[in-house]
Amino acid sequence: MSELTLERGLAAFRAEIDAPTAAFFSSCVHCGICAQSCPFYLETGDPKYTPILKLEPLRLVWENEFTLWGKLKGLFGLQQKVTDEMLAEWEELLYDSCSMCGRCSLVCPVGNDLAYMIRKSREGMVQSGHAPEGLIAASVRAIQTGSPMGLQWKTLAVQIKHVEDSTGMEVPVDKAGVDYLVLLSSMEIINFPEYLEAIAKIFDHAGVTWTLSTQCFEATNAGIQIGNKDIAAQLVERVVAAAEKLKVANVISPECGHAYTAIRWEGPNLIGRPYPFRVFHIIEVLDELRAAGRIQTEGMESDRLSMHDPCNLARKSGVIQQQRNLMNLVADNFVELKEHGKFQWCCGAGGGVSSNERAEPLKLAAFKRKKAQIEEVAPERMVTMCATCRTQLEEGLEEFNMEIPVVGLTEMIADHLVEKEAREHE
Amino acid sequence: MSGSMEFLLWTKGPMFDIALAIFAIGLFARLAEIFLLGRKPNYAEPRAGEWLPGLRTVFTRTIADPGTFQRASFNVVVGWVWHIGFLIALLLFVPHAELIKGLFGIAWPALPNPVVDLVTAITLIALVATLVHRLTHPVKQRISTIEDYLVWTVVFLVVLTGYLAYHRLVNPYPVALGMHILMAEILLIILPFTKLTHIFTTFIARWYNGAAFGRKGVQS
Question: To the nearest whole angstrom, how far is the Cα of A226 from the nearest Cα of chain B?
Answer without folding.
Answer: 21
